[in-house]
Amino acid sequence: MVKTLYYISKRFRQSKYLLLILLVFISTQSCKKNNLEIRVLFVGDILLSRNVRGEIQNRNSSPWADLKPLFQSADLVIGNLEGAVGTHDDYLLSDSDLPVFDIEDTHISLLCEAGFKIITLENNHSYDLGKSGKEKTIEALRNCNITPVFFENSPQFFTVKDVVIALLTINMIPGRNSSVNEIPSIEIIQKLRLASSLANLIIVSIHWGSELLDWPNREQRETAKWLVRNGADIIIGSHPHVIQQPEIIEGKPVFFSLGNHLFDQKYLRTKEGLIADIRIHDGKYICNGIITHAKANSFYPEINETKNFEFKPLPLRNNFLKIDNFTLKPLSISDNSQNRTVLEAFQKGKKIWSTPPMSIVSISSSKLDGENEYLFTLERHYSSLDRETSLRPYVYSIDNKGLIAKWRGSALAWPLLDAVISPYDNKILCALHRGDSFINLDTSETNIRVAAYIWNGFGFTGIADSITCECCKKLFSE
To answer: FRET partner for 180 with CA separation of 20 to 30 A, picked from 125, 188, 368, 433?
Structure first.
């Protein structure tokens, strides 16, 4: 064989070298592609209570033994956990007749062993054991190195191979505490806006729809349109407990319902689940699916078939926040129940500095004075002036050492609901105010007012120009 190659190389040396170079190039590119591809898997509803707990105890095995190779092939595995850590006796007293899903603390470790990196907790069973039950669940997940994501601490940012993924969770189904997230919502708009400023891909996990209905209802469709218009790139739905066919809504993939992943319902359709399979490569993402099925007399999921939805690849956002040759990237901090973010500044791929954890609600850059770039943020802070923890506007400049606070406002002229730099004129700040005042605070006041401001170098001055004010009103009415 060696002699044969030797004679071939003498006769066809140039061709051989070209062939070898070509083979090495192809091999290298293949390896690069595999190394650079990002895979995110989303599974449906997970139950670790009732009959599922019984099967785990009887079989003394993990429900994900058959899926572990699949999960190991992914960079992020995400699921929606229904229930709370604690005992059934700790259930929250309620007028609701919903069942109580109590979870043994030791069973949380099964999620980590299976390969779950993130667990969402916005659903109608997260408060089955009251506020303390949800807090115990969050603590148990963090103790297992799993990131819990819920409404208050989202969006959470996850950086995988230099791609920043933002995850926001929403619950529209009332549970034992009757709380839900309303849509439309200023707060959700702010969360989506923050994600749009700092992430390449925005995923919304939402608990919605009608149980056992295998097609999306009207509310789901209208909500999906609103979420996409306000920044969602992918929507992942749960709660119906059956698969609802994914669709493209307003140009974005919407998984209306992934069905059950691990649950003890016995209807045939409830024994099937859909895993959303998201692949990110070369600045684009594409969504497909994997069908799982639980055998008779079992609730453990097994892979059944792959599903190609024929969705076209879509471009990632390429909008990292850039200011004065710095690129700002987010790092989520999970040391409390609120959303806190560290901003990391990069130049030519090298991290220059990072901020302390900040309670950022929204962030944008603008040439407020027409020349210099500034950061405008809304942050949630307590103030002794109004004795509220509320939105406070900040203006920063930036240098090689970090952020420099140029202005720290209380809330402009009146208590603040929202504020954004005008897309029509980046020297104008449009603000949505509450109807009360700092002199007579009344958080129950439902009236609102819109005002326009201009940067004066030391703060913002109100302006009464009718055209500018009308543009601001239009901005908050869209």
So the answer is: 433
